Amino acid sequence: MKTTFIIFLLLISLRAAAPNIIELCILQNGPINPFDKIIRAVGMVESKCNPQAINETEGAFGYFQIRGIRLLDYNQRTKSHYKLADMLDFNIAKRVFLYYASKIGIENSDKIIRRWNGSGSLTYQYLKKVSVYLNNPQFNGST
Taking the model in full, what pTM does it have? Predict the structure, then answer.
């Protein structure tokens, strides 16, 4: 009887010390691209997210409005042979954008945005335009 009582007390104390069971259920997972929101915000400013956009005056093509000088630099650095017309393919244009963005690193999104626009003080105005989308909690950053 004494042994049964001690076992009973031990069992009660074990149950009292057991943590609550919390279950985590992942309903959907997919690849995570930390640059997605930046890509979408830059796309909104550059082309209203139109991968077929062409600015004939500036010679800028696609979603990111890539110009010939940037493409020349990209091709030289990566040994690629893309043409401006290839920038109308979102996935190719995104590859070009991500090449430069990843050189800077996601931890410095302001620098990514400013450098995409060029150099100098006018890039701060460009950053403000892109930041309107980045700072909007209702902005959907998925690409």
Answer: 0.76
